[in-house]
Amino acid sequence: MILKRLLDWLAGYWPEWAAYVVVGLVGIMVLIAFFLTMIMVVIWLERKLIGRFQVRWGPNRAGPWGILQPIADAIKVLTKEDIVPDRADKWVHLLAPVVAFVPPLLIFAVIPFQPDAILADLNIGILYVVAVGSIAVVGAFMAGWGSSNKYSLISAMRVAAQMVSYEVPLVLSIIGVILVVGSLSMMDIVNRQSLPFFLMQPLGFLVFFLAAAAEVNRSPFDLLEAESEIIAGYHVEYSGMKFALFYLGEYGHALAASALVTALFLGGGKFPWGALPPSFIWFLAKMVLVFCVLFWIRSTLPRLRVDQFTGFAWKFLFPMSLINIFLVGTELWWAKEMGWSLFPWPFLFLNWAIAGMLVLVWPKLFQLGVGRVEV
To answer: CA 86: distance to chain centroid?
Structure first.
């Protein structure tokens, strides 16, 4: 790892504590630069592709093919006036955007882009991801409460309800991966995927992907920012750079979710037919592909109602996550008793057949179809 080599080199000249501080600061700066660059790339990519999906032009004025449009947007929000409501709680109103922006940045610290490209290889990496990812709800609730606005507060309460509802199936869907790997390290999870886990656990992959889409407020799960009901949601009283932090935080969460899907279920930076250096590029390609699927769904499906929104989490995703745990645990026990290798081919076909049957039958059995969305 480059940072490890830098640490060893600095330790020969500086005190150990100073070397650790310098290496930590360098790692943080590299991570922030990568984070902000990727956000600008996916913002441009989303606007261009959604323009194609909706049969219109995307950004095409600022720079060739509109590639400078994210920079133009950043300049615009930086020059906007920072307005704070008179009755707002000033400190809470000020800190809320920071609390909302930081968690997705912290998640990338344990993402294994390739074997020698990870900032911190924690042996409890997946627990760290779950814990840090849950902090974002605090920033949104602070924004709703600190704004002293009833629409913001309604949206903040929706944030809490949404996070509680979808965090449960999200975490339970990861348990199937942990059962197979036997480790909580993100690096170990990637290294054990000789076969991508989405082939071994299609039901767990489906639950994780849909729950992650809801966690990052992507349509059709963007009820927190329903303009026709609560104007703009919890950040309606924000402008300028504070609003930009919320904006960056939302895209950062979508990027973090895409990176987690890539690491947990798509084999990380591994190429399907052998080595393809550098694996870092292959990881980014998978991550961007997952992000494209997210905004493909955004440009296609209408927003869910509140009853559909919560019902989908508790009546569909939650039972599916429990079934996935039972199915994976049973297959692992059976394979161990029979002396078979991990997940032989018959198990793969069985898992896909069960996942397809449940997805088709479960909504009809419990009347969970999202139905027609009334405007």
So the answer is: 35
pLDDT of 174: 92
The dihedral built from the CA positions of residue 214, 216, 220 and 224, taken in this order, carries a sign that is positive
Q: What letter would DSSP give residue 117?
A: B
Question: Phi/psi at 279 (nearest 5 deg)?
Answer: -70, -20
- Read off φ and ψ for residue 14, nearest 5 degrees: -115, 165
List 117's β-bridge partners, or say none: 114
**What pTM does this model have?**
0.86
DSSP string computed for 60-116: -SSSGGGTTHHHHHHHHHHTS-----TTS-HHHHHHHHHHHHHHHHHHGGG--SBTT
Instruction: Answer for the pair 35, 108: CB distance below 8 angstroms, yes or no.
Output: yes
| pLDDT tens digits along 276-321 | 566 788 888 888 899 888 888 877 777 777 777 778 888 888 888 8
- CA angle, 129 then 105 then 150, to 5°: 90
pLDDT, greater one: 150 or 278 = 150
